[in-house]
Amino acid sequence: MLLDTLLQFFNLVLHIDKFLGEFIHQYGTWVYAVLFLIVFCETGLVVLPFLPGDSLLFIGGAFCATGEMSLPLLIGLLLVAAVLGNTVNYMIGRAIGPKVFNTHIPGLDRFLDRAALQKTHNFYEKHGGKTIVLARFIPVVRTFAPFVAGASDMDVRRFQFFNIAGALFWVLLLVLLGYFFGNIPFIRQYLNVIVLVGIGAAIVPVVLGALWKMMRKDPAANVARKPGGR
């Protein structure tokens, strides 16, 4: 059952243009509500980081170029969805993050690293702005970044400034790229490959960076680097 669901999801991501085209032809303007909800849920609900936000923005722009959707309306709705989603995610993190780390439930303390929360807070105080903006372009990371910002108690006004700036950059760039280039025959023909390459280009550096940090923290690796270590 889970395998079938995953296969259906990947099929949706790889053929998002066909799915969106069929939906527009069947339900018309309801497509705006669907795109709004998908972008809002991907950015606002930490349990839904797998939704295809980037692809939908690009394909939405391409359909605007053909006249099947309104470019100003699409951009306006997606901007609201992106800003509102991040705001909700931030507020959830702000509400439950410190409470979880300050709990004194027996047995739970050993799994919570309060020093890590303080380090995260310090990081977001220094680099939170650019993290919020850049995270918009990295699937999965963009879902967790506002939650972590809230949990680490990043200043709300500073968060909202970069939240809006990141949403503008993300939505305008991807929708307009789709609007101007999405219907070029070559791009249309190899759209599935382009989507996969884009997702990979965004995710692979993050994964490699995480693996590199894990290797550097590996005790065995530390011993090997010491004089006399084998």
UniProtKB/TrEMBL annotation:
<feature type="transmembrane region" description="Helical">
    <location>
        <begin position="30"/>
        <end position="51"/>
    </location>
</feature>
<comment type="similarity">
    <text>Belongs to the DedA family.</text>
</comment>
<dbReference type="InterPro" id="IPR058127">
    <property type="entry name" value="DedA"/>
</dbReference>
<keyword id="KW-0472">Membrane</keyword>
<protein>
    <submittedName>
        <fullName>Protein DedA</fullName>
    </submittedName>
</protein>
<keyword id="KW-0812">Transmembrane</keyword>
<feature type="transmembrane region" description="Helical">
    <location>
        <begin position="161"/>
        <end position="181"/>
    </location>
</feature>
<dbReference type="InterPro" id="IPR032816">
    <property type="entry name" value="VTT_dom"/>
</dbReference>
<dbReference type="InterPro" id="IPR032818">
    <property type="entry name" value="DedA-like"/>
</dbReference>
<feature type="transmembrane region" description="Helical">
    <location>
        <begin position="71"/>
        <end position="92"/>
    </location>
</feature>
<feature type="domain" description="VTT">
    <location>
        <begin position="51"/>
        <end position="179"/>
    </location>
</feature>
<dbReference type="Pfam" id="PF09335">
    <property type="entry name" value="VTT_dom"/>
</dbReference>
<keyword id="KW-1003">Cell membrane</keyword>
<dbReference type="GO" id="GO:0005886">
    <property type="term" value="C:plasma membrane"/>
</dbReference>
<feature type="transmembrane region" description="Helical">
    <location>
        <begin position="193"/>
        <end position="212"/>
    </location>
</feature>
<keyword id="KW-1133">Transmembrane helix</keyword>
